[in-house]
Amino acid sequence: MTFTSGARKELQMKKTIGFWGWSVGVVGLATAAFAQQAIQPAPSYYQRDGQVYYQTAPAAQPAPAAQPVYYVPQPAQPVYYAPPAAAGQPVYYAPQPNAQPAYYAPQMTLAPAPAIDADAEEVDEEGYYWIWGQKWPGLSLGPKFGTTGIGLDLVFGVNSYLNLRGGFNYGSFTWGQKFGNVDYDMDVTMISVPLLLDLHPFGGHFRITGGVYIQPGTEADIDATPGGATQIGSHTYNPDTIGTLKGNIEVDGVFAPYLGIGFGNTVAEDQLLTFTLDLGVIFQSYDASLTADGAGMTARLDTFREDLKKEEALLQEDVDDWKIYPVLTIGLAWHF
Fold first, then answer.
1. Exposed, middle or buried, 290 (CB in 10 Å: 0-12/13-18/19+)?
2. Is the pTM of this model over 0.85?
3. Which end of the chain is more exposed for a tag (fewer CB within 10 A), N or C?
4. Alpha carbon distances (Å) from 315 to 282, 289, 297, 322
5. How far apart are alpha carbons 53 and 47 in whole angstroms?
6. How do residues 144-169 score in pLDDT, each as one tens digit?
7. What span, in angstroms and rounded, lies between the C-alpha atoms of 171 and 158?
8. Domain contains 104
């Protein structure tokens, strides 16, 4: 095809304009792409493959320290995520289908944990328990001495208010005592087995005690040898006629009631070694007998023998005044 010079110039101009237009378009598109990547603010959403993606909401600030955060778990919904973006690019996500509104429970304040009392008793405390649930206090054993002699006390605890007590006492001593018209020397032997019930009305160491004393071998032997004329019964006799007066005083009945008060709960909780004190009385009676070995016992007349019976009656009257025997004992007991 042959072009004139004018037509050639016109064609050359069109090519030049087209080239520059195409160049400007390419540069414009490249500039727009670069601006989108570098300086253009991220859009709140964009579309891709027919799906709308939203920019991730700003991360929630953590709750203040030590403040509990409560929430209601949402129904499980599938979450669709866009592929990870390049570094420095916003992340978009797709909204959950049929998203349910989130409901939040009102914030509540936790009650403070109860303080632990270091002195509080353990619930499962070691030891033995009665079938009704009370803890068995245990046993105690210890020595004691006093007006009942020297002995041992064994205490069997029932609870903090009641104990059973038993033991054994032995005593032997001599003293002088006047009965009727004669001064005698007394050799006393005391053997007793107490069976007692200790009541602690306030749950402490003070107690009220009742029970019995079993006395299988409590007695006194008496004797007197006058050195001069001595009245026996209604008459006075010389020493040869009287000789030596011998008698016996023994308890009338093996069982003697006891009532008293005391101090010391030997099986109390956390009590290892306890001082004890008892103050009370034994209610008892006695039988007395009297004999002599002087010449009056073999005399033809019964005068001396009748007066000796009168002297024996005076002896019985005197010992009848001893129906209340005082008890004062102290001791120690070991709790185990």
1. buried
2. no
3. N
4. 21, 8, 19, 12
5. 6
6. 999 999 999 999 999 989 999 999 99
7. 30
8. no
